[in-house]
Design a protein that fits this description.
The chain has helices at residues 2-21, 41-45; strands spanning 26-40, 49-51, 59-65, 68-73, 77-82, 90-96, 103-106, 109-114, 117-122, 130-135, 151-166, 202-203, 209-212, 215-219, 223-228, 236-242, 247-253, 256-261, 264-269, 277-283, 291-294, 297-302, 314-319, 327-333, 340-343, 346-350, 356-360, 371-375, 380-385, 389-394, 397-402, 410-416. The protein is mostly beta strands. Strand 9 (117-122) and strand 10 (130-135) form a beta hairpin.
Length: 420
């Protein structure tokens, strides 16, 4: 028996030796890793500064109030443009706001997100903006996976990682993680008057902030925060409404709120602005989705993107004459639509790297036959039509067009992006 044990033991040792000495089978795998950048909340809160005018580098959302244009520099702050003369806009200042993506203006007060906080800034004199108030940790739900009591993930650093795995290792071919985050002032005074009345400005179709009937609405992925602006300098966090998943944009129209999402357009009754109530949903295939409304029609662009890879690229026109039962009038294939704006019978549609398209939409069934102009050679993200002047923001900068004659838009000015 001992002899048998010795024989089995030698055999096992021999097999282990073979395993240890055989030719190694290994594979090398290189992938992108996004490592979180942690920042103390106190540092973020101390980071708001009034600075001299800066060039545009990575513009995002736009907003218009009186004679001023506000341009978000993604996660960095807000440019202030004096637009008294659209043919000669003046870049007059920059407000550094860490983590800023969205904004809205009510009277003399600019509201901006700064990561987890809502900040109120007095712009009575746009050359000397003053921080008035901060509602702390109000957007933690938007950052629910990215914060602790004292720290927040303020960004990600991209690194290339190369690792070697034995053949058959289950980690080989791990998926790549994509971060889906979302994106100075001169001393002279101005000749034109600053904002003065308690009314809101105008945002683009990509906005997550909207002001209506004395309330500021801020939508996150699946929530809507309501702020009472009865004391504009100190907005009160009044209510949180749970929404369907995938909310991307908000568009106020009359006493309704239209929310664009990755799966559909949601309609809310806002007759009581302190408690918007759900009316209905128009469902579409999963796509990134801003919406604008005029009369009894809603115009929605659908596009494939990082978070909507299975979507479509299209413009959809929706009949909302019966708000309980919105229905598709017609869908039009597009190249890669982003933001859009409507003014009477003219629809302005941003096509990303494919430029800007101008349609006559008087007949909702023949929009594809009424393309009036197509501007190319730049990247278009969002627009705001202002009666006779169109603001358009994109990767290349801010463009302004005179559309007094919608058949023939005329370029008034451009503030270009400056590449590093």
């Amino acid at each position: 028996m001992k002899s048998l044990h010795r024989t089995l033991g030698c055999l096992l040792l021999f097999l282990l030796t073979l395993t240890a000495c055989r030719d190694e089978c290994e594979s090398t795998y290189t992938y992108i890793n996004y490592e979180p950048i942690l920042t103390e909340k106190s540092v973020i809160r101390a980071g708001i500064q009034s600075q001299v005018a800066q060039t545009l580098h990575q513009p995002g959302k736009i907003y218009f109030k009186d004679n001023y244009i506000f341009i978000n520099e993604i996660k960095e702050g807000i440019h202030i443009i004096n637009n008294a003369d659209p043919s000669n806009p003046q870049n007059i200042g920059f407000i550094k706001i860490p983590g800023n993506v969205d904004m809205a203006v009510y009277g003399n007060i600019l509201y901006a997100d700064s990561y987890m906080d809502l900040v109120s800034i007095d712009i009575s004199n746009p050359s000397q903006p003053q921080v008035l108030h901060r509602v702390e940790d109000v957007f933690l739900d938007f950052y629910r996976y990215w914060n602790t009591d004292n720290m927040i993930i303020s960004g990600y650093e991209e690194k290339m990682i190369t690792e070697t795995y034995p053949c058959g290792d289950g980690q080989l071919g791990r998926p790549i993680f994509f971060d889906n985050l979302a994106g100075g002032v001169r001393n002279p005074t101005f000749n034109n008057a600053p904002p003065s009345t308690n009314n809101p400005g105008v945002g683009g179709s990509m906005a997550r902030f909207a002001i209506s009937q004395g309330y500021l609405y801020a939508v996150g992925t699946n929530t809507m925060q309501l702020f009472n602006l009865s004391t504009p300098s100190q907005p009160q966090n009044q209510n949180t409404i749970n929404l369907a998943w995938g909310i991307e944009t908000i568009f106020p129209y009359q006493d309704k709120l239209f929310l664009g999402s990755t799966t559909g357009m949601h309609i809310y009754d806002n007759q009581d602005p302190s408690a918007p109530s759900f009316i209905s949903t128009y469902q579409h295939v999963m796509s990134c989705d801003p919406v604008v409304v005029q009369g009894d029609k809603a115009y929605v662009t659908l596009r494939r993107d990082n978070t909507c890879e299975q979507g479509v690229d299209a413009l959809e026109v929706i009949d909302i004459s019966d708000l309980q039962n919105p229905s598709l009038i017609k869908s039009y294939p597009m190249q890669h639509p982003h933001g859009l704006g409507i003014d009477q019978n003219t629809l302005f549609l941003c096509e990303g790297k494919f430029g800007l398209k101008v349609f006559d939409v008087q007949n909702a069934l023949t929009i594809d036959q009424n393309l009036k102009q197509h501007f190319t050679g730049f990247d278009a993200y969002d627009v705001i039509p202002l009666g006779d002047v169109l603001l358009m923001i994109g990767k290349d900068g801010l463009y302004q067009y005179d559309y007094t004659n919608p058949e023939s838009l005329r370029l008034l000015s451009k503030i270009p992006v400056v590449r590093d």
